[in-house]
Amino acid sequence: MRSVCMLCLLVIGSASSLCQSVPQSSSSRADVQREKATVGGYVFRLDSGEPLKKAKVSLQAHDASDFSDFLLTDNQGHFLLDGVPAGSYDLRVSRNGFVEAEYGQKRPGTHGAILTLVPGQRMTDLVFKLTRAGSISGHVFDEDGEPLAHAEVIAYRASGHSGTEQRASDELNSTNDLGEFRVFDLPPGRYFLAVNYRIQDSHGLISKEERQRFNPGYLPTYYPNTTDPAKAQAISVNPGDEIRSIDFMFRPAHLVTVSGRVINSIPTSDADVGGAVRLEPRHQGLADASPELYDFQHEDGSFVIRNVPPGSYDLVAGWQDPQGWHRIGRPLEVGSSDIENLVLTISRGIDIHGHVTWEGSPPSDSVIMLSLQAVDERRFPDPPQRIKTDGTFEFKGVPEGTYRIVPLSPGPTRNFYLKAAHYGSVSAADVKFPVQPGTSASLEVVLSSHAAHLSGTVVNSDSLPGVGARVVIIPDPPHRDLENRYLSATTIRMENSRSAALPPAITSYSVGIPPKNSFMDTGRMGSTPIGSSPTNPKVSQSTSRKVINGPSRSN
After folding, report:
1. What is the total count of domains within the chain?
2. DSSP string of 431-494?
3. Domain of 511, in residue numbers
4. Is 19 inside a domain boundary?
5. Where residue 126 sits, what CATH number does that domain have?
6. How many Å apart are CA 400 and CA 377, to the nearest integer?
7. pLDDT tens per residue across span 338-352
8. Sequence-distant (≥ 6) Cβ neighbours of residue 534 within 8 angstroms
9. Predicted confidence (pLDDT) per residue in 358-402, tens digit
């Protein structure tokens, strides 16, 4: 009887424990849910104020982690994202026929802000007003007035300086069988339009004699029907504009052929290898409207690139085997005559070994890599190399040329800088150094974690916080051509300042706020000079704050 009573007590006790565990589990889940944030709001048309149904709202973790979410707005333009982990995010809204908007954005086409969420935060009062996108349409005809199909149409966003124009989109716009084109989803702004068309002769039906007499083809043509990029005129696009009847009339031009042979001095027995030769325009901006000019190497190493417009190019040959890419390049001026019997020799390249020494403690949460950037010629990019735990690194098969060493970090912030580097007896920090056959020097690199930091607040002309402003730090001469010295940060909500790591060895910088449709355009930025000497109170090795007055960003 006593044993039976004990058994009953055990059963009752277990049941009591079980009952008590249920509310603990529910409470735990509730605590976890309270750690999540909520983001919501409405999407409207800017012109009429009407709610926008089926607008896509996308939330993506700013640090490129796995978390992302999206949904479509309802009939009232409302959206609500629940269960969002605390963190920093990019929030975007898009809809067909409208310009994509970002959280914190003040004008279409400008940079947005980072959305920072804390545990349990409910941000449900966001309002997005989308601007109608514009379009440009027209036709492309040949010299006989017949439509040209498959002509490529490129829109470039206008810039303050010639040669700095950028493509408005990476999407390919081509004419249809009627020669019609339509470039759409254009934010308000000014655009240059370029068209190129390349007559294909993939089967070699045009004889050499005919090519020497007249190589049929067309030069890239810019609005309004000029082949000179300097005479191109910009087209102004306002919200919702549908600009029609932008027609192009192509006329035949004398194009030339570039041919030669690639000699591969790297022995291989693997049949699964291949190579290509291409011509790259040396000028940027509108000049890159030329069609792709390339040819694959034939079995004997020969190549033929047809329909080449006159201009300045880099002739680049690349060859791939199981060990990777091997390449060589040389500048080439193309005139009115064919260029034949060119010879490019691909060799194994030079292996560069090196070692990294740290001044201070290396970042524990960052993967540090080193990259070699070619200075004189445009080449296939060299993959960056990771620094091993013992500080060593190696670049294999580096082509002969002139390079700079650039440290890289994949994260959103970089709290170190390149302090010194030597390649043999040559100083390689911030200056170019030659890599030549027969060289066996070691590349010694010193990275420092004692970087200065710049932080501050951006306000507009109304003295209101400039949320979503992009601040660019530009090195003053003679370091302005060092692209790795350009740093940028975007102001965020609540904490309206971001910091950027500066090498204290550089004497001075300019802090610029790019205006609309401009990036890295030092001639148009509102800028403030600063110093980075450790004795300068504005920017030192401890964090400092500075108020920067930017252009008005109000609607």
Report:
1. 5
2. S-EEE-TT----EEEEEES--EEEEEEEE-TTS-B-TT-EEEEEEPTTSTT-GGG-EEEE--SS
3. 453-549
4. no
5. 2.60.40.1120
6. 10
7. 999 999 888 777 888
8. 452, 504, 540, 541
9. 998 887 767 788 988 877 655 555 678 888 889 999 988 787 778
